[in-house]
Design brief:
2 copies of one chain form a homodimer.
Chain A lengths: L5 H33 L3 H16 L5 E2 H4 L7 H13 L3 E5 L7 E5 L1 H23 L5 H4 L4
Antiparallel strand pairs in A: 1-3, 2-3
Helix pairs in contact in A: 1-5, 2-5
The first copy, chain A, binds a DNA duplex through helix 4.
DNA sequence: GGACAGTACATGCGTGTGCATTCAATGCAA
DNA sequence: TTGCATTGAATGCACACGCATGTACTGTCC
């Protein structure tokens, strides 16, 4: 890639810091709020949402882990363990994929869908607070310790 | 906060996913590249950069940890340990603050400044690749495992 | 001065993550 | 069919994180 002149570089850095700030504010608040009220992390919610979308779209067809992976920004191992947590919590079931027995198909349980529906308004509210107005929530701009 | 109509909600979610994708791509590639070539994590680089800026701006005055904290999106404990790593690597020195002996003042070492200057072009290059064109780097869109 | 709330940083602990590796199943080629 | 590279997912391991707490220092109020 070509070198950047200093003006382009400054713009890029400013854009990056803005992105970091928004991400930190939203991610921190989501993790805290979803965790406190629903026992879900940000990524857990994200996975539940993909499963809901997958089921609604494909007429209830279950998602394979390998289909889920590219849509969630986690390593394969982290996703594997996250699914194990969801299964342990009774929100999801894992079953062997008949077509390709290496694969695992995931299905939302009733409890999983319920949990998602309950958590969703809070999730959207947090997004509104942290992304919407442009004003960052101070209590999460720097994560409290 | 008021309820969102479904259109506003969809926009918010789209914005959030875009942000997540960009952040994941940039953060993953930064951590990998800076780590491989310079032994620095993304946040380590960020802290070095604040120290460089602080020193250049204030006429070489050292930064206190409490000044640094709000600019880095880390918990106080994570920052404390990050600084310990930088000190162990010889990139930074910690000293008691004379004015307020609870505080710690940080100063960049020569090695710290050098490391920063060496890593900076790569950092900017990665930002250009992941933020610039709008095209995400596929190899990091989903972190490899 | 002495007690006490508040602040700055460090540390014990549990947990989530990525990397490397492993294991099973698949597809292909000889 | 056998042999082998590839793929999907699970697991050992090290590490960075956040939370809760601990320790040292400051400032205030009595």
């Amino acid at each position: 890639m070509a070198e950047l002149d200093s003006q382009a570089e400054a713009g890029l850095v400013a854009q990056w810091r803005e992105l970091l700030a928004r991400h930190a504010a939203a991610a921190c608040m989501l993790d805290r709020e979803l965790g406190d009220r629903f026992g879900l992390g940000m990524s857990e919610f994200e996975v539940l949402e993909r499963l809901v979308e997958g089921c609604d779209a494909g007429g209830g067809h279950a998602l394979r882990v390998s289909e889920l992976a590219p849509t969630v920004h986690l390593s394969q191992s982290a996703l594997s363990r996250l699914i194990a947590r969801l299964e342990k919590a009774g929100l999801v079931t894992r079953a062997m994929c008949e077509a390709d027995r290496r694969g695992i198909v995931l299905t939302l349980t009733e409890a999983g869908r319920d949990r998602y529906e309950q958590a969703r308004p809070l999730h959207r509210e947090v997004l509104g607070l942290t992304l919407g107005g442009g004003g960052l929530d101070k209590s999460c701009e720097a994560p409290p310790d």
